[in-house]
Amino acid sequence: MQLDHCGRSDTGRKRNGNEDSFVVNDEQGLFVVADGMGGHAAGEVASRLTVESIEEFVRLTGSDREITWPFEIDESMTLDANRLKIAIRLANRRVIKLPEERHEYQGMATTVVAVLFSGENLYVGHVGDSRAYRLREGDLRQLTSDHSWVNEQVLSGLISRNQAKTHPLRNVVTRAVGSRWDLQVDILNEKACPGDIYLLCTDGLSTMVDDDEIKQILHGQPTAAATCEKLLDRANEAGGDDNITAVVIRCTG
Asked: How large a percentage of the chain has pLDDT more than 70?
């Protein structure tokens, strides 16, 4: 599968620093977005450590099949699905252990969403409320389900999706890298098709730009780079309340 891809990040209009991180690794077919949280720049450290750790493990397991894996392989999943899931779990352990050496990083954590391409197959792994979308033949679908308090209330039928958009607890995540030792990572897989467009983003984009406009932007730009720029511009025009990060992958053949 040939890919046209781009990643962009912006501080936004309300924050002094940027706690988002991302990786675009065409050689490995790996794309990762993370949104850090924690004081004293700890969020930035957590997100950067997470994306770097995921990239390192995917690279090592792609070139050296004899490497010792830090967790048991789940035989119900493919090798590449295991690579991505274990990479995120390993990043989680590293984020948890760092504050043992640097006490100023106590309480740091991060969301993460990652896509690993393997031929026509792709695997999506995520923790938290950073999202993966797919545009296929004009239909936009959110592939991930937010690990957030408001989304759990929506799924339980206790509040509506419109109420969730303005709920005072809408920023509370229920699962994050660095939050617990035995972290549950959601993994899904599907086949990519020529013409598909994938978007990975932090909530600094998804809370500022609604799905209909995201769909229009993904459909209306000629390149991944132009799409990223347009998405970030619209999030800032809408208020830029948070850091904004987007990774766009266009499947061209």
From this structure: 95
Domain count, the chain: 1
Question: Rounded distance, CA 151 to CA 148, Å?
Answer: 5
Strands 3-10 and 244-251: antiparallel
Q: Sign of the C-alpha dihedral, residues 244, 50, 41, 178?
A: positive
Q: How far apart are CA 248 and CA 225, in angstroms?
A: 8
CATH number at 201 reads 3.60.40.10
DSSP at 177: B
For residues 143, 144, 145, 150, the Cα torsion angle rounded to the nearest 10 degrees is -110
* Structural domain harbouring 33: 3-251
Q: Nearest 10 degrees: CA dihedral of 133, 135, 138, 140?
A: -10
Contact 164, 145 (CB under 8 A): no
- pLDDT tens readout for residues 108-155: 999 999 999 999 999 999 999 999 999 999 999 999 999 987 777 877
**Residue type (1 letter), 113:** V
Structure tokens at 226: 């132009």
Question: Which runs of consecutive H residues, i.e. helices, occur in the chain?
Answer: 42-63, 79-101, 149-155, 161-166, 203-206, 211-220, 224-237
Q: What would you report as the CA-atom Rg of the chain, rounded to the nearest whole angstrom?
A: 17
Are 208 and 244 in contact, with CB atoms under 8 Å apart?
A: yes
Q: What is the pLDDT of residues 218-237, one digit of tens each?
A: 999 999 999 999 999 999 99
